[in-house]
Amino acid sequence: MFVELAARGAAGNATLPDRARFQSPNVVIERKFHCVHTPPAPWWHNLGNAHAAASQRTFFLSLHTDQPPPAHHVDNHPDDHLDSRTGRLGASRHPVIRLVILTTTLACSLLIGFSAWFIWSARQTQIHQADVAISNVARMVGAQVESAMKAATIALADVAERARYDTAEPGARERLQRHLAELDRTTPELHGLFVYGADGSWLATSLDRQVDGNNYDRAYFQHHRRQAGSAVHVGAPVKSRSTGVWIIPVSRGIYRADGTFAGVALVTLQINFFERIYDELDIGRTGTVLLMLSDGTVVYRRPFDEKLIGTDLSKGNIFKELQKTRAGSAFLHARVDKVVRLYSFRHLDTFPFLVAVGRTKDELLSSWLRSSILIGSAAVLISAVFILFANRLVRQIRIRDALDHRLRMYSEELESHNVGLRVLAHTDKLTGLANRRRFDELLELELKRAQRGRTPISLLLLDLDYFKQFNDSYGHLAGDACLQRAASVLSGQVARAGDVAARYGGEEFAVIMPNTDQAGAFAVAERIRAGIQALRIPHRHSPAQVVTASFGVATLQPGGDGPVTAGDIIECADRHLYSAKQNGRNQVSTGTHDDATLP
User: Fold this and answer.
1) Where are the bilayer-spanning segments (predicted)?
2) Domains in the chain and their CATH numbers?
3) How many distinct helices (H) and strands (E) make up the chain?
């Protein structure tokens, strides 16, 4: 057997052995390495160079024996794909990969989390700002309605007071007519002023023409006729009989000094007046303004729809919210057009009106949505870059880990084969016992140890009786089988740590027994002899008719006159073996008078 190691160098690069070759009579193991290790470079230099890194490492292992190649024979070339199992090794064990994954996950989580928080905060800010703006508009609308109603009630009080006097006096009706016209001219909020008699007939009007008619059937007229008092009544919107436009009637009863009903004073507010004002409000293209009476009757709604005037919205969400609080804001689903809006709503303090101003959710959040898409997209893009960067880095580490793992695996495999070669070099192929070379090495070693420690050592030599005749009669295959069975007896009886059974040559065997005196060696030899005979291997040329063995035992005791060599103790044991054969075979021979002694 020989061992050949050759190293191939590269300028500026340290290399591992490129070729290692081990040979014995039965096996040749050959390995090629091309593992160029360059000085460590910054990790960013390695990104995208996975293939280059892989191509710098080449492994080749070939196993040649006198048997067919085993199933686990490996033949890797530079273009081989990495094994998935080794490729995953770094993911589960490499601390750098765990750190990269943890750092990337943390960075992406923080980035996404901060972006989400920023987007949510911007949304809340946008809603708050819109709420403030809409609340201000609602407050302004309410103030404008309050102002118009105050002007109407002042004019109404004046008209009612003048109408209490007897309009039958000469010129009284004309004076009242002129006064109503003057009030109408000086009060832009008003549409018209009217005075009706107790029967509903028109007594006076601010119109520039006399109109014959009767308003006895109007709801406001019936209200004052049935309920005495000076309270102002705001009626549901109606179409004016004099002009044909939608108006809000604001009325007050006229009563004589004795309390009897004398008629009704009426001031009307034209709904178009509110429409002209509310259309100018900057509440978006789909924003809405809603003016209702306290019972939920629609007075006006932007965008204007004549069909909605007088509609009952007491079942709507806005009216329900206004039943809970005097003023507030909320996202509500409109009953009219089914659109979700942010509404600001309030009760007027003095008059029975409800005001609501709303902007659609989509419209008021449109600018926020655009910026959120940009921020979110940027966060996702940056996170994707982080993940891609980390993935490439992790892949690079995994590839390098896989290559290092393979190198370690091949090194361990080579070491395992080296161990196997050492075993093969020291083992007899037929019997599995130590061979002659190993026997000689161990005998020298144990003799030196015995001399240093001044302990006894025994050597057994045994020879199968008439083995040449056995081979001639039964054949060499039967002879080999006989040797193997005899060796198994030795292995079974020589079980103490430190004892070594070896094939000495041909049909001869030897047993080295450190720390064993003559009696102990004789007992072991006798057990082996009996065990071989108990195998009952037929042997027609043996007096016992079965295979037997003869033994020679030599024991070296401390206290001799000089050093003893391996040849000395072998010669002593061989003499006793010869003696056993001369005395009839199938026995153990010892003789203390011939034993050498250790100094």
Assistant:
1) 96-120, 368-390
2) 2-97+390-425 (no CATH), 164-273 (3.30.450.20), 282-360 (3.30.450.20), 436-589 (3.30.70.270)
3) 15, 21
